[in-house]
Amino acid sequence: MNAIADLMRPQRSTGRASVAIATRRGRAAIAGLHQAGSAKAMYLPGAGGPEVVFLNTSGGLTGRDRLRYALDLGSGLRATATTQTAERAYRAVGDPAHVRVRHSVGAGAHLDWLPQETILFQGARLRRETQIDLTGDATCLLLEAVVLGRAAMGERVSRLEFTDRRMISRDGVPLFAEPLRLTGEALAAGAAVLAGARAIATLVLVAPDAADRLEAARAILDEPGVRAGASAFDGKLVVRLMAGDGWPLRRQILRALAVLRPGRLPRVWQT
Amino acid sequence: MLTPAHLTLVQWLSPAFPTGAFAYSHGLEQEIASGTVHDRASLEAWLGNILRFGAGWQDAVLLCLALRAGADTRALDAHARALQPSAERLGETLDQGRAMARCVSAVGGPPVEAGPLPLVLGRAAAGLNLRRAEVAALYLQGFVTNLAVIAVRHVPLGQSEGQRVISALQPLIVELAGAAADAGPDDLANAALSADLAAMRHETMDVRIFRT
């Protein structure tokens, strides 16, 4: 099935979608939209702030693919950005796929960057860089979830090369840096690395009152099949989740989002 | 050829140098309590993972970056802080960094700004003009020795079993230190997610001896 999908896809796809949101007549509105190649972005207005949904129409990532998403959120606004579906990284021969996500959040604004999970298949090679630039007192919530193969389909991933650099900075100063790098060697390493987990997630809330949510976050970290922890420091709250498969991970993510992000879930996360 | 500079570095990284390293288990206390680390083999595997995939590699890269002429102290400090996975691990590197800066100058070494431990050591050792790979190897051996001693007391293990673990990890230490010597900021990488989770869960352990 994957082999057929590989054959039917063009050798290389590129996509670039960028959205700018600014205040127009007292409310959030699209100030810029650029879409090229396989990348699309949808803008959904909502009472709790707009939702921007990015989509890669190529059906997944493989060698030499290039994908870029960007959102520029104006001062004082609140928005949620996510992806339409899980991103799939398939076996890549030769050069890896490159994905670059760069969001900027204006002073006083808040961005929730809640992409759906990334599913890595056997032999995947993907380099992704996610950077959220906060200005002044801007705040954000970042979620990254990664699933190794589909356990329900009996897939076992033993070979891959995945570099996933996540960075949040404020006025150019790094606040959060997580340069995740998973290789076949790391997958086989053992107790201090994945310890058998096939699905992992990190949630980071950067806000002056982030530590106030620590107890509430810890209280819901009891989803069966998930090992979880939370810590608050340096103006951020970090939650880490590890599970044997994507479903318990997703259930725990939804419960964590309810604590870290009051209000209705983004539409694509409502299952 | 062994020089006085080598001896100075060995002194700074000696368990007798009062940086308080003995108070930090890097999440090992939680891993011993949960049974993940329970004998010599599991200790060696866990420490090997930390070295290759976790803070060992990251600290060695940071240390080598700080040893370079013209290193950007503020940018490196902010990056190293941002890399810490939990409140206690941030304390582990900052508290020991502060103590290292104080102790180095107290024994006649250069005055250096406090900050994350590997960066403080890098700033202090820059003037010793030693090879970066040598400084990184001695740093990693000190890191592993501290944790092995903790395991000997708390798993518990025989003294010589703990020392055997250190011996077994030395080829890996030399390999990683050599690679870290020429690494850049983009080579910073982490996969030791279970160890990071253990460090977080250590915060809520009922009975704790160590600060991490």
From TrEMBL, chain A:
Ordered alphabetically, the record's keywords are: Chaperone, Cytoplasm, Nickel insertion
User: Which InterPro entries does UniProt cross-reference here?
Assistant: UreD
Signal peptide, first to last residue: none
A molecular function (GO) held by this record is: nickel cation binding
Quote the subcellular location field of this record: Cytoplasm
Its primary localisation, in coarse terms, equals cytoplasm
Assembly, in brief, is: UreD, UreF and UreG form a complex that acts as a GTP-hydrolysis-dependent molecular chaperone, activating the urease apoprotein by helping to assemble the nickel containing metallocenter of UreC. The UreE protein probably delivers the nickel.
Q: Which family does it belong to?
A: Belongs to the UreD family.
- Spell out the protein name for this chain: Urease accessory protein UreD
Q: Which organism is it from?
A: Salinihabitans flavidus
TrEMBL record, chain B:
KW Coiled coil (keyword) present: no
Q: Does the keyword Ion transport apply?
A: no
Question: Which Gene Ontology CC terms are recorded?
Answer: cytoplasm
Q: Identify the domain of life.
A: Bacteria
Question: What residue ranges carry the coiled-coil annotation?
Answer: none
A GO term, aspect molecular function? nickel cation binding
Cellular location(s): Cytoplasm
Which coarse location class describes where this protein primarily resides?
cytoplasm
Gene3D superfamilies linked to this entry: Urease accessory protein UreF (1.10.4190.10)
Pfam families reported in the protein's UniProt record: UreF
Q: Which UniProt keywords apply?
A: Chaperone, Cytoplasm, Nickel insertion
This molecule's function is given as:
Required for maturation of urease via the functional incorporation of the urease nickel metallocenter.
Subunit-structure text: UreD, UreF and UreG form a complex that acts as a GTP-hydrolysis-dependent molecular chaperone, activating the urease apoprotein by helping to assemble the nickel containing metallocenter of UreC. The UreE protein probably delivers the nickel.
- Please state which protein family the record places this protein in: Belongs to the UreF family.
Q: PANTHER family from the entry? A: UREASE ACCESSORY PROTEIN F
Q: What protein does this entry describe?
A: Urease accessory protein UreF
Which organism encodes this protein?
Salinihabitans flavidus
Mind giving the lineage of the organism this protein is from? Bacteria, Pseudomonadati, Pseudomonadota, Alphaproteobacteria, Rhodobacterales
Give the gene symbol: ureF
